[in-house]
Write a structure and sequence with these properties.
- Keywords: Mitochondrion, Oxidoreductase, Transit peptide.
- Its cofactor is thiamine diphosphate.
- One of its GO terms (molecular function) is branched-chain 2-oxo acid dehydrogenase activity.
- There is one protein chain.
- The chain is of the alpha/beta class and 411 residues long.
- It folds into two domains: 205 residues, Rossmann fold, CATH 3.40.50; 126 residues, Rossmann fold.
- Helices cover 43% and strands 17% of the residues.
- Helix 4 crosses helix 13, helix 6 runs parallel beside helix 12 and helix 14 crosses helix 15.
- The longest helix has 21 residues.
Amino acid sequence: MRYHVKHKLQNCSARTVELEKLGKIETPNVSSSSSSSPPPTSELPKKMAITTALKTLRSRASSVRAMRRCFCTVSSEDRTTEGRAKDGRPVNLFTAINQALLIALETDPRAYLFGEDIGFGGVFRCTTGLAERFGRSRVFNTPLCEQGIIGFGVGLAAMGNRAIAEIQFADYIYPAFDQIVNEAAKFRYRSGNEFNCGGLTIRSPYGAVGHGGHYHSQSPEAFFCHVPGLKVVIPRSPRQAKGLLLSCIRDPNPVVFFEPKWLYRLAVEEVPEHDYMLPLSQAEVIREGSDITLVGWGAQLTVMEQACEDAAKDGISCELIDLRTLIPWDKDTVEASVRKTGRLLVSHEAPVTGGFGAEISASITERCFLRLEAPVARICGLDTPFPLVYEPFYMPTKNKILEAIKSTVKY
């Protein structure tokens, strides 16, 4: 089943690359001699697939435009840390990831990149061209064994190297849980800092994608937020992904870096081509407001931004914060915002019970209890396995968030 889904995704990825190159897709030239004859039967499925793809792209056009409005916002931090937007060019998220990996390999001869199928570019094409450029000794495939991938990465990092391991889907990170939690996270502590595996970075795509079902849609970030010794980072956009990933690779601690696969191709913004890093454990206020504070990370920021825009039409001023680093998270920025607005809403795709939103809710309640005007709201995934057909009911959608904003403000 897993191989079937993987190869199906590879084919879909290749088809998407082809559609992007075409542009949006141009009708192939047909000679006059063949115009009167029907197309070959073998080409009918291909043309039907293209037609279906075009319909899907058109149906998502409005949401993509809304997302790009969110992504193309350049904050003061972006200008000081990365340079002006005009210094870059528009790229999508997987291309920004590819740029970061290229820079990491190019600037540090001790950096190695490995994982399932990354030699040919990976399921999502994030490693395209890297094996050809840096050789199979530094960019290479591994067996289908997540525990072995991370165990190898721990040892490689312990020898002073930069080990960049890829777990093909976050849903399959669980076989490696022991190596991450009991080895990587505790390596420095158990030796009294005599040795460590701080050069280990674990990349993995997470979250909903629209058709992933049980085993290709999960958001397991909360499991790792419970583990001292790890850092957990999730970007919201291409510019953020490149700067944060480079910071993670160069950080002296093991980091789990989750990439929102829903945004690999949909999220497009101008990304500087040069080497830059963004600070870890520092949240960013991406929309200022006075009535309620919204906190999220990753792909959910897009949905929350749309809810903020709709709330503004009803006269509600929302302050939106991208946490970026979940562990250690920036409590001070969130606390300062909640002290100003008096209200807090947290949203994430993972199930509500035991999700990281619960930790944020508890911490802010402790710090801001006397300033809160309403209970902290959590709009998250449901406490069920991730569904396929019923995904729209499971997801924390814009309408769910908007309703929670209104009820919290009117409390």
